[in-house]
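thought: user wants a sequence for this fold. calling inverse folding tool.
action: design(structure=
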């Protein structure tokens, strides 16, 4: 097993910066936090209902889906890759797991057992899709943009075909057994929020405390140097896309009981929101550096923007995607101006 290369700032010497107390000081890392705090103040001023506990839990629950995907996307972008298919992937996973659960209903034990099998299937399917992306990128030597742009269309087209242009609906008994996964709560906090928190902590540990995380950063910083350091670049990239696929599977598991169905519009523009959360959180779009904490804050920040638009009449809620697109462009512009 090769020794882990030095952090990204040491692998790529031209980006090395002064350190304070042994850690690199980057004033830009606090930008997302400041932005979120300002939005919270603005939201409270515009509508008193914004600052209620129920609305806070609603925002965090809605954030959970995109936030979990964003954590996986953070690894991919730090490694220098991209995945444009996560929304379509989620739609196909949702349709596939609903079809499987409906087929197993009444023949495999209780509805809870069927739901458990459906959830396991979603995770395996997501991981399989992610590994397929990684294989095409590493072995096929195809650019990530091209691979995932192609599967974006493939996944959604297959789901549309399976649904015959309509919606795939979960059986009522299964829906009742599955409902607590989204609508249930623990200690007054919804289940999706707990799962989001657990995935966030696991992602932070994996990125910052393991050799795999250091390899991901080293590859995104300078892939050629990482190869010279005896890092198995192809294997790390393969696992990175597999990790993202699993994250999409987890998000889909939480999303399906919300509506109990999957349609051609399921997961629409999720890729935009996931990428926006990562970039807003301070991760460099060029790769090599990024933080899970920043990504989580970025996901919450975008959800807060959407929530404020829903609670006020400043601009139409239909322009939410346009706002997110503007945020991505603005943050990318600011990143280019970094020293």
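)
observation: tool returned 339 residues.
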């Amino acid at each position: 097993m090769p020794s882990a290369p030095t952090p990204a700032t040491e692998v790529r010497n031209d980006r090395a910066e002064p350190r304070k107390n042994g850690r690199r000081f980057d004033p830009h890392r606090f930008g997302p936090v400041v932005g979120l705090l300002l939005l919270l103040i603005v939201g409270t001023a515009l509508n008193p209902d914004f600052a209620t506990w129920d609305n806070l839990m609603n925002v965090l629950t809605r954030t959970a889906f995109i936030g979990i995907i964003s954590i996986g996307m953070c690894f991919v972008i730090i490694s220098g890759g991209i995945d444009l298919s996560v929304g379509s992937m989620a739609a196909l996973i949702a349709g596939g797991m609903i079809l499987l659960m409906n087929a197993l209903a009444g023949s495999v034990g209780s509805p809870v057992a069927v739901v458990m099998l459906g959830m396991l299937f979603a995770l395996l399917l997501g991981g399989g899709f992610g590994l397929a992306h990684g294989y095409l990128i590493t072995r096929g030597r195809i650019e990530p943009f091209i691979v995932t742009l192609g599967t974006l269309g493939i996944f959604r087209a297959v789901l549309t075909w399976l649904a015959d242009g309509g919606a795939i609906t979960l059986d009522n008994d299964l829906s009742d057994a599955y409902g607590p996964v989204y609508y249930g709560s623990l200690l007054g906090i919804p289940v999706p929020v707990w799962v989001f928190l657990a995935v966030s902590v696991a992602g932070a540990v994996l990125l910052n405390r393991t050799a795999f995380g250091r390899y991901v950063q080293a590859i995104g910083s300078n892939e050629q140097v990482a190869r010279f350091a005896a890092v198995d670049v192809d294997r790390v990239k393969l696992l990175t896309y597999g990790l993202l696929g699993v994250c999409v599977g987890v998000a889909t598991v939480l999303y399906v009981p919300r509506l109990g169905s999957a349609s051609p519009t399921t997961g629409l523009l999720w890729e935009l929101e996931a990428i926006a959360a990562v970039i807003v959180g301070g991760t460099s779009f060029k790769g090599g550096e990024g933080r899970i904490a920043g990504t989580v804050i970025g996901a919450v920040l975008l959800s807060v923007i959407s929530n404020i638009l829903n609670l006020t009449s400043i601009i139409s809620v239909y322009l939410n995607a346009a706002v997110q697109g503007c945020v991505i462009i603005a943050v990318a512009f600011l990143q280019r101006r970094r020293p």
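thought: summarizing for user.
answer: Here is the designed sequence. Residues 60-334 form a domain with the ABC transporter involved in vitamin B12 uptake, BtuC fold (CATH 1.10.3470).
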